[in-house]
């Protein structure tokens, strides 16, 4: 196991003498009180020092350090270490990173180092979702190219937003809205795109494409559809005038200090290259934790509102069709025994990010394995949450 640690700098305060007795009592808890305010701390970029930590430079914390972790972060480190042991018993290289009150309280790497890039697979969908949250805010503010207006309820299989979809292979696609695509309720099927499939194939433009016909009326069925995300990536390019990756680099990654990240491209000679959208982000556990920490703060980073808080109201609300899936995020009751405000980015090979605002908690699990014990994800979540002392 490899651990990356950084010290915490103490803060000094002066107080009026006549209040000294009362304030000394409060001072004993100052570190904990400050930690419980989620907006107090935002980590600098990794190249500038990165996350603050309560862990020693190497090895496991000693008794005094464990006591400090419990005092400042409300974590039973030994129970958290049991979660790490469970995680590392699974096959393949992996990372487990736990952050509470802005402090790294657990960080373990198996057969890799902290700079290891992982394909976070379908966690990428939540990045796509956030990009649309920003795009919709731009539309509302009149900032889209040529004064275009896009809302969640805009029907998108039309000339302005998705001319590539015309003529429609199924007339029911005429009723697909942006909301339907972002909540997987468009009726587009969940078949996996073939490795050789072109963008046209995903839009059902070729005979024999499984996406030529919808699986149901838009808004009435749920299908976890990567082909549906392909529609979104084309819509995004038409709406923003550029691909999602440079857009996110400017609007999200740079403001939050996300440095080590790239997005696999897809496309062909006919329609050009696009970020994959449904998968393909390669990044580290510490960088994905920034994305989740931004979510924990509902889009705020330091003194800047990077993402409108209202975006999360949409993204974290399930639909009548699929209660535990919002706007490309997994939500309660996906983990029925967890706090109801736990939200998750979830990807193939158990690449996951979790945020629990009520606990001021973020934890990341990334890995390269293929075979896992039954209920691995839910058991890992339970073990991490067991270590949290409310």
Mean pLDDT: 90
Oligomer: single chain
Instruction: Count the domains.
Output: 2
Show unreliable segments: 1-36
Estimated radius of gyration: 22 Å
Q: Biggest sheet, strands in spatial order?
A: 1-3-2-13-12-11
Largest sheet: 6 strands, mixed
Find the count of extended strands (DSSP E, 2+ residues): 13
Strand-pairing-aware structural class:
alpha+beta
- Work out the helix count: 12
Shape assignment: globular
N- and C-termini, Cα separation: 28 Å
Helix content: 25-40%
Give the ordered list of helices and strands: HHEHHEEEHHHHHEEEEHEEHEEEH
* Beta-strand residue fraction: 5-15%
Q: What can you see in these coordinates?
A:
The protein is built from twelve helices and 13 strands. Helix content is 31%, strand content 14%. It has helices at 20-27, 30-35, 63-73, 77-88, 124-140, 178-182, 199-202, 226-240, 244-256, 285-296, 309-315, 376-386; strands at 52-53, 94-100, 103-110, 118-119, 261-263, 265-268, 272-275, 281-283, 300-301, 304-305, 343-347, 351-356, 361-367. The strands form four sheets. Strands 1-3-2-13-12-11 form a six-stranded mixed beta sheet, sandwiched between helices. The chain has a three-stranded antiparallel beta sheet with strand order 4-8-5, with helices on one face. The two termini are 28 Å apart. With 390 residues, it is α+β, with helices and mostly antiparallel strands. The protein has two domains: 1-114 and 284-301 and 330-390, no CATH class; 118-280, Beta-lactamase, CATH 3.40.710. β12 (351-356) and β13 (361-367) form a beta hairpin. The longest helix is centred in the middle third of the chain and has 17 residues, at 124-140. α4 (77-88) packs antiparallel against α12 (376-386), α5 packs parallel to α8 (226-240) and α5 (124-140) crosses α9 (244-256). The protein is globular.
